[in-house]
Amino acid sequence: MTEDNFQEEKKKLTPDNGFDLIGIDYFSEPGNQLYLVEHFEMYQDALNAKKERKNPEEYFILYKGAGGEFLCR
User: Fold this and answer.
1) Any idea what DSSP says for residue 26?
2) Is 21 exposed, middle or buried, given 0-12, 13-18 or 19+ CB atoms closer than 10 A?
3) Cα–Cα distance between 52 and 1 in angstroms, integer?
4) Neighbours of 32 (CB within 10 A)
5) Is the CB of residue 37 less than 8 Å from the CB of residue 23?
6) What percent of the chain stands above pLDDT 90?
7) Residues 52-73, mean pLDDT to the nearest whole number
8) pLDDT of residue 30
């Protein structure tokens, strides 16, 4: 799946403050495939948690930018 398929889910899961580590469940119904793993106040903590996962490519970090835009890494 491409990232575009997750756009609405990403918007719903993006925190107003801090950084959320998000996982992907490819076996769930479309529209319900993303889930919150953990919330972090600092980006570096979220990044470290992602790197510690068994398959880090199946996780990403959601946050809002300075202009209120939805960002994903």
Assistant:
1) T
2) buried
3) 23
4) 9
5) yes
6) 62
7) 92
8) 83
Phi-psi map region of 31: left, alpha, beta (phi>0 left; psi -120 to 50 alpha): left
Tokens of 9: 């889910």
Look up tokens 């960002």; give the residue: 71
Nearest by Cα to 13 from 25, 67, 45: 25
DSSP characters over 38-50: EEESSHHHHHHHH
Cα 67 to Cα 4, 14, 32, 39, 64: the distances in Å are 21, 14, 27, 21, 8
6 pLDDT more than 90: no
Tell me which residue of 58, 59, 61 sits closest to 45, measured CA to CA.
Answer: 61
Q: Are strands 70-72 and 34-40 parallel, antiparallel or unpaired?
A: unpaired
The side-by-side arrangement of strands in the sheet containing 19-24 is 34-40, 19-24, 59-64, 70-72
